[in-house]
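PROTEIN DESIGN WORKSHEET
SECTION A - STRUCTURE
LENGTH: 130
TOKENS:
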């Protein structure tokens, strides 16, 4: 996927990591442990966490790491309700990845809006009101 540089390298690094995490989880065939994939997930989670300084993102990355560790390190997965263990874990990871993606989008939009706001001369007005 080719994206033009938006001027936010931290967000782009986090997005690249998020996309790589998604590919790993989607390609896991299961059942059985995949320790190589687990090492890659741990490294990617660390890279995403280092790329973006946001508590909400860190919370989602932590959830991704925990569920991925359970998915990729065990041969058998406990069923949760009507879902198999693998399906449940994938669902949780996908949900956290989607929330991470949404937060990255929000952070980028907030920065762009803030820059437009400042460039329009509102930065000084806003600062004067404080």
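SECTION B - SEQUENCE
RESIDUE ASSIGNMENT:
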């Amino acid at each position: 996927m080719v994206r033009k540089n938006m001027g936010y390298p931290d967000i782009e690094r986090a997005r690249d990591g998020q996309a790589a995490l998604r590919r790993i989880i989607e390609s896991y065939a299961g059942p059985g442990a995949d320790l190589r994939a687990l090492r890659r997930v741990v490294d990617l989670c660390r890279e995403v966490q280092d790329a973006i300084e946001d508590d909400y993102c860190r919370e989602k990355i932590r959830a991704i790491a925990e569920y991925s560790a359970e998915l990729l390190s065990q041969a058998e997965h406990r069923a949760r309700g009507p879902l198999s263990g693998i399906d449940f874990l994938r669902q949780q990871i996908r949900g956290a990845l989607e929330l991470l993606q949404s937060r990255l989008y929000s952070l980028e939009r907030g920065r762009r809006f803030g820059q437009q706001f400042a460039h329009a001369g509102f930065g000084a007005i806003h600062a004067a009101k404080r």
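SECTION C - NOTES
Confidence is low (pLDDT under 50) at residues 122-130.
Residues 27 and 103 are 24 Å apart (CA to CA).
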